[in-house]
Request: fold
Amino acid sequence: MIQANKSSEYLIWADALRVLATVAVVVIHVSANVVFAIGKINPFEWWVGNILDSASRWCVPMFVMISGALLLDPSKNEEISIFFGKRIKRIIIPLIFWSFTYFLWLKIRGHEITLRYMVRNLLTGGTYYHLYFLYLIFGLYLITPVLKTYLQFASSRNITYFVIICFLFVIVQQFVNFIESREMFSSLALTRFIPFIGYYIAGFHLRKFVIERKHLKSILVVLFLCIFFISFGSWLLMKKYGITSRGYYLHNYLSPPEIIMSFCIFFLAIMTYGNGGDTSAVFRKINSKFQRLAPATFGVYLVHPIALDLLSEYGINGLWKTSIVGIPLTTILTLIACFTVINFMRKVPLLRLTV
Reply:
């Protein structure tokens, strides 16, 4: 049923998933104002936003799984000092630059920015709604040398057990938070990574397997059921609890259907590329585009809220005309603007360090 994948050609699917996950992130943030308008807009428009949002929720887990697949390989021997030298520069410089960029952006948009506000938001990762991810990845980097040592000597069954235990703890904790109406994630930025350790290890563990083609239909059915469960269940929860941590329970990245959906997307990528992928000219052309766009995805993630804010100033958002038009249009315009800006920044030596 599931066989070991001896190929090392996982960098191709990593590039593809980076690009697709970046698109999904933008879709979520464009759809947000539609989802938040439940009960205030036409039900059809709301359902379009809710389904697109629900179907894109695998994006952040996928970024974590890709990082695990690439960084946890024990065969890549690096001194800890070299490892941290590379990764800290990769995270700390963008974190500082974009944190203060968004403080400035908030100031320009009329928010009062005090020293106390800045310190509090830097500690909680709340400078802007998306920057928590840098803290999350940084925390995973800190424990990577320890995890690599474990993975080097652990059996496949032992790793599977560890991943299951990680997710079971998280699912129980998230459910308790739901029952007690608490926030789903820690308010301290540097502990945000802990619930995502399961995804991080799973990325390394699952990349070694390919799924036989005969299981494609089953994976697609499970994926569809996850999207249906998240979107329909969220509708019920939001009707009852509104836009709260309870109402948004199924939309958080660690709810059971979100975890299963993320695994399905990961398996589909492995299935597509696990045996070298399609060798047709069309397939090669698509891959070349993924490989060209992938280096800019980190920067696109960092800058896209500014593009969304600017478009919103001109009335272009998920509800422009109608959500079935506004969401794809706003997503496309945002991605074009962001990839253009980031490709320019990557050509400027100092700016390149920030993206």
Q: What stands out?
A: Residues 80-108 form the longest helix (29 residues). Confidence is low (pLDDT under 50) at residues 1-10. The CA atoms of residues 18 and 294 lie 6 Å apart. The chain has one domain: 2-352.
